[in-house]
Amino acid sequence: MDLNGLLNRLVKMFVRSAVDAGVDYAARRGKPEGKLTPEEREQAKTARNLARRAKDISKVTRRLWR
Fold first, then answer.
1. pLDDT 10s per residue in the chain (66 long)?
2. Whole-angstrom Cα distance, residue 63 to residue 4?
3. Which residue in 47, 50, 13, 53 sits closest to 27, CA to CA?
4. Cβ contacts of residue 29 below 8 Å, gap of 6+?
5. CA-wise closest residue to 44 among 31, 57, 54, 53
6. Alpha helices for the chain (secondary structure H)
7. Residue 29 maps to a domain
8. 40 and which of 3, 30, 36, 48 could share a cystine (Cβ 3.0–4.6 Å)?
């Protein structure tokens, strides 16, 4: 594998991790996990599940249009 391919993979891994962290942060509305009320915690869990499903649907859609 050439250096350019390796660099691209590392950048994709970093961006994917950053996007996941951002989605989690947005789901919690910026609060730490310990300070969430049970209702907020359930809502954050629902938001994370919805984001995961949206990501899965986008993957399937990309595969269909190849």
1. 689 999 999 999 999 899 888 888 888 888 888 888 999 999 999 998 999 999 899 889 989 987
2. 24
3. 47
4. 40, 44
5. 31
6. 3-27, 38-64
7. no
8. 36
- Residue 43 CB contacts under 8 Å (≥ 6 apart), including other chains: 27
Neighbours of 27 (CB within 10 A): 18
Residue 15 tokens, joined: 């961006």
For 58, the domain range is 37-66
The reply to whether 31 falls in a domain is no
Nearest to 53 by CA among 12, 14, 23, 30: 23
